[in-house]
Amino acid sequence: MKNRIFFILISLISLTAYAAKPAIFLLKNYHQDIPVTGWLMSEKLDGVRGYWDGNKLISRGGKILSPPAWFTQNYPPFPIDGELWTQRADFENISSIVNSQEAGERWKQITHQIFDVPNQTGNLHKRLQVLQNYLDKNPTPYIQIIQQTTVNNKKQLQRFLHSITANQGEGVVVRDPNQAYQTGRLSSALKLKQYTDTECTVLKVLPGKGQYQGKMGSILCLTSQGKQLTIGSGFSNKDRTNPPLIGSEITFKYYGLTKKGRYRFPVYLRPFNKP
């Protein structure tokens, strides 16, 4: 009985740590044939999404974050959306701070890098100006507006991407500045990343769940460096119905390595040597 009561109490405590998932915009992938001249580009920061609803800080998944009171004391009374971030190639440290209930002074490493101001009228420039006007009167070192640069041509965009990824950055975001604020996955907000690809040998086909019930969910494979990894994205419905054979080689892409040497965001590309 005591164990049951304890479980209920823990469950209630957990429930209070979550709110409804915020209505936010999400990025689509950039393609070369999309005209983006005149759009704005900025660095895609590898942090934790942080949505301030005017009262509390919430993650993309709806978790209510627990920064110290001094961190948010000069936050605006209106929503802002951005990335909780420290520096490049520091995601694991950022995540450990943001997701802790007792990070305390470690929050001094974090800045809230803002890329939009929801619920405000006008284009992106005007929405960001609303926040800038507020910060001019209520300065805080923990809120910074992400620098936006106009895209003059695709070569400039590619040079910008290369300069970021060459210095351990994640990638670039390009946005149509004339769009009013919208939520959902937008064609007016795109992400560009550079990735590395390599091969691995399929060790096991793992069953799917939910929409992939009765099909392949992911595969366990082994690289020539002796590293095992699970790949669950990048597969078509045809691939999931007829998965790669055990013992066959596939090519996958990834976005760098974690501090523990694991592949970041591995995605299936194709059978090995197939164009």
TrEMBL record:
Enzymatic reactions: ATP + (deoxyribonucleotide)n-3'-hydroxyl + 5'-phospho-(deoxyribonucleotide)m = (deoxyribonucleotide)n+m + AMP + diphosphate
Signal peptide: 1-19
Annotated ranges, domain ATP-dependent DNA ligase family profile: 124-225
Cofactor(s) the protein requires to work: a divalent metal cation
Keywords: DNA damage, DNA repair, DNA replication, Ligase, Signal
EC number from the UniProt entry: 6.5.1.1
PROSITE patterns, per the entry: DNA_LIGASE_A3 (PS50160)
Any one GO MF annotation of this record: DNA ligase (ATP) activity
SUPFAM superfamilies in the cross-refs: DNA ligase/mRNA capping enzyme, catalytic domain, Nucleic acid-binding proteins
Biological process, per Gene Ontology: DNA recombination; DNA repair; DNA replication
Protein name per UniProt: DNA ligase (ATP)
